[in-house]
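Residues and backbone
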Amino acid sequence: MRWWLQAILLSLFCAPLFAQKSATRFGFNYWPQGYGCNVLTDANWNEANKAAIKSDLDLMRSLDARIIRLNFWPSGCGFEPAQGISSFRPEFNQIQKHLPELMKMLHARGLKVIIAFANTYLSSGPEENNPDGLRWWQLSYVGYSNTPDGFTAFTNDSVKWINGIISAVEATHPANATVLYYDYQNEYSQRVPKIGQYLRILYDLGRAPAGKRGISVLEVPVDVDAGAHSLKNEIKSRFLDYVDFHSYPATAQCPFNADVGQVYGYVKSKFPGSVIVLGEYGGRALQQEDLSAASGRNCDGVFAHVRWDEPQQVEVE
């Protein structure tokens, strides 16, 4: 993400560790420019990139940032299924190997970390030649199929991917003390097929410790508690320590969760025991591939806003 366009305002009413005079903490969504989590592969985890990261972190800390949000996508991060080929590439182990060093950099600067998972194989699909709107996991050429067995295979691989990242952090110090929580799925939307079942599987089989379990929601109030497949209904009795929402008010045509105070209050009313997080806030990103706001088409489609903050991220290669 373009960290200079994004901010986190973290309300910490339920976290005694941060119980100080201020009720909020400020931070950035971040990966170094031109990279995502692939900066942690052997090919990219070099002294030049480490120096750039340290410089970025020092700058953010000088602005009184306290929290960094790292979003992990499967493509480029070692989880790349294809029919007849293992779903996991060598980069998967490389990222686990180098991630604790990144956590150490963050810890040395007094920064807390949110690790978010954006499983685009679950949430999106091909934009062309896909009249039924299938997600990537539903396509046999990806390595699964739109069947119960295909979904089981996909979720098993997803659990392996996410648990690998979590274990790399939780097994080492100070990495484990640096992570505030894990976001099981960036921007939960009830429109995504089987997302509730997916989330429950991650919660039950995932290695996120108690106190570090969270999720972000896409549309408020729709995805919070409206309908049978809203987060409130799908999570059932499972407790979320953190619930995150995103706001993109900076376009007149299609503002998204624009009234931060109102949205915060609504989410808090539905998850009163959880810490509520504003995890993304901003406008259109630089070098945007989407159609311009002036076109009038940026409100079309369920996920019209998703690329506003992700101009560098390729969903599937």
Summary: Confidence is low (pLDDT under 50) at residues 1-22, 286-298, 300-317. The longest strand covers residues 275-281.
